[in-house]
Amino acid sequence: MNKFSWYEAKSVEDALQQVNSTVSEQLYKHTDKASIFKSGGVDVFDWVKEGLLKPQKIINIRNIPGLDKIDYDRKKGMSIGSNVTLAEIASNPEIKTNYLALHQAVNHAATPQLRNMSTLGGNIAQRNRCWYFRSGDHDCFRKEGDRCFARHSETGENENHAIIDNGSCVSVHASSISTALMAFNASVVILNSEGEKKKVAMDDFFVTAAKDIAMENILQAKEIITEIILPAPSKNTKSAYIKQVARESYDWSLGDVAVVLEVSGNATCRSASIVLGAAAPVPYRSMEAQQALENKTINSENALAAAEAAMTIARPLAKNGYKVPLFVATIKQAILEIS
Ligand SMILES: Cc1cc2nc3c(=O)[nH]c(=O)nc-3n(C[C@H](O)[C@H](O)[C@H](O)COP(=O)(O)OP(=O)(O)OC[C@H]3O[C@@H](n4cnc5c(N)ncnc54)[C@H](O)[C@@H]3O)c2cc1C
């Protein structure tokens, strides 16, 4: 681990003034001159310990007052501060009542100890999962190297990797919580060092590898997430979240699904929001599944048709073909949990 200085930020503005990098993508370019924000620190210190990230300065934003609030208004919806911990979200009764899929996703993420440390801002901004990308010994495309080690048909260990949009990078996004947030059409509020605030839909927050392989989200060096906003659900909104893992106690997702449906009295799906996690390098909204389910009765046959529609665009790698039937079964099950 390299030596770094530590700055205890007193406010968001103070933290933003401390950024000493002139590189706009301070974290995503592997520079050793950068400063970095640290919230829970779970992911940041993984990178620092591995020697992949060598910041000169760590700016601790974890103790900034005001970023740790959860507010719910029946008409406006839910606001979750970026420093709210996953444990606080897991135990919030209004989230359980109004955003069940989010409650389920958070309760199935990481371990109780990690949920006590991890913050929502850090969770959605954590870096992708791929053992080659996260190893100091492998210079892959994302680290300005000349190959994708995971993709190799004989030597690539790609069983946990992407089956959709896996043309240039086959890593998957790590935040299973983002699967649920995106399904609820959440937005991310970001403040920059000029004092400008913007609200970005989760669908536009993540950056696909095809668009820019050096980026995983739109955050620039001098920007901080301050809150995540979820629109108010209607009384006909129902949701479910299911995550498949190799080890039930705790594990990264092999495939997770969040389904948020508007359901009319006779179990007809009026609108569908269906998002897949660990399927692609970013949380993936399945337009195919949504279209297949909308204006249909929620039953086993239509749930299966929607699940199969989602997988028509899947292109598995040598060792992750199992993900296709896994997603078909999981999407179907999540839809039927709502009926
Ligand atoms: C063994 C293990 C299992 C896990 N399992 C899961 C799982 O199943 N599902 C899941 O979703 N997660 C999982 N996680 C992730 C974990 O729960 C944390 O959410 C995550 O590692 C980062 O949260 P953090 O608050 O510690 O962020 P940090 O490590 O502090 O920050 C992560 C990144 O976000 C940036 N950042 C942090 N806050 C802000 C902000 N407000 N504005 C701008 N940038 C910011 C940092 O600069 C850094 O780049 C797991 C982690 C481990 C170690």
Number of DSSP helices?
12
CATH hierarchy: architecture of one domain = 2-Layer Sandwich
Question: Nearest-angstrom radius of gyration?
Answer: 20 Å
Largest sheet: 5 strands, antiparallel
How many individual β-strands?
12
| Low-pLDDT runs | 22-28
**What share of residues are in beta strands?**
15-25%
Instruction: Give the fraction of residues assigned to helices.
Output: 25-40%
What small molecules accompany the polymer chains? flavin-adenine dinucleotide
CATH evolutionary superfamily of one domain: CO dehydrogenase flavoprotein, C-terminal domain
The CATH class of one domain is identified as Alpha Beta
Within the largest sheet, what's the order of strands?
A: 4-5-8-6-7
Overall structural class, as computed from helix and strand content, comes to alpha+beta
Along the chain, the helix and strand elements come as EHEHEEEHHHHHHEEHEEEEEHHH
CATH topology of one domain: Enolase-like, domain 1
